[in-house]
Specification:
binds cytidine-5'-monophosphate, 238 residues, 8 strands, eight-stranded parallel beta barrel
């Protein structure tokens, strides 16, 4: 089965999401990403609604708190039926293990446990900032690899990373460790504020497991056409 790119629903409220989704055939099951912006406005109901419409959901809330709080919160997120969710690896191995345990607890009998991935260093953080603000004295790349290994050790399924880091991460962990990668731009499209972009076809070649695509689809004149073209490129069907 061909794989779906994950569409970043970076909209301020359900109203905008509904008019965006109206661009797609009703029967088309999408994989969407809901981030803090939308979740904090609409609450858990937005997830129930997207699931009810038949879509898969990556809930990108990047949890980072004491293990007990993260565990209880993850139990609640699993009950919503999310397909992928995440934490900050900086929360530590104990916290990541607690997150995983929480998801397990909240998963309904017979249902698939949500995939859990970790954010390593945010791509908005420069090496200089990381060294100064976090007092981490290694290179940014070493820090990313270290966090990926911690996530693996904690039993997580993968990390959010740049497609350009996927190869190194796979080498440091294993080939089946998930590399979910934003910063994707089809050839010739507007780069926007992203710095290091990769095309869907190259992301596939380098080793991304999932790609997250926002504006090239959400801001397209005909979103469904843009989606299909990116999906084909991602699946090597062009
Ligand atoms: O519109 P665009 O394709 O740039 O959107 C990418 C999405 O992925 C946004 O929701 C952005 O917040 C998210 N993201 C990212 N880089 C990261 C982590 C998340 O672009 N390192």
């Amino acid at each position: 089965m061909s794989q779906r790119p994950i569409i970043a629903l970076d909209f301020p409220s359900k109203k905008e999401v509904a008019s965006f989704l109206a661009n797609f055939p009703e029967a088309e099951s999408l994989f969407v990403k809901v981030g803090m912006e939308l979740f904090y406005q609409e609450g858990p109901e937005i997830i129930r609604w997207l699931k009810m419409l038949g879509h898969s959901v990556f809930l990108d809330l990047k949890l980072h708190d004491i293990p007990n709080t993260v565990e209880q919160s993850m139990t609640g997120l699993a009950k919503l039926g999310v397909d992928i969710t995440n934490v900050h690896a900086a929360g530590g191995i104990k916290m990541m293990k607690a997150a995983k345990a929480g998801l397990k607890k909240g998963t309904k009998t017979g249902a698939k446990e949500p995939i859990l991935i970790a954010v390593t260093q945010l791509t908005s953080t420069s090496e200089e900032e990381m060294q100064q603000d976090q007092l981490i004295e290694v290179s940014l790349k070493e820090s990313v690899i270290h966090y990926a290994k911690c996530a693996k050790q904690a039993g997580l399924d993968g990390v959010v990373c740049s497609a350009l880091e996927a190869n190194d991460i796979h080498q440091a962990t294993n080939e089946s460790f998930i590399c979910l990668t934003p910063g994707i731009r089809p050839r010739g499209s507007d780069v926007g504020d992203q710095q290091r972009v990769v095309t869907p076809a190259d992301a596939r070649k380098i080793g991304s497991t999932y790609i997250v695509v926002g504006r090239p689809i959400t801001q397209a004149k005909i979103p469904y056409e843009a989606y299909k073209s990116i999906k084909n490129e991602w699946n090597g069907e062009r």
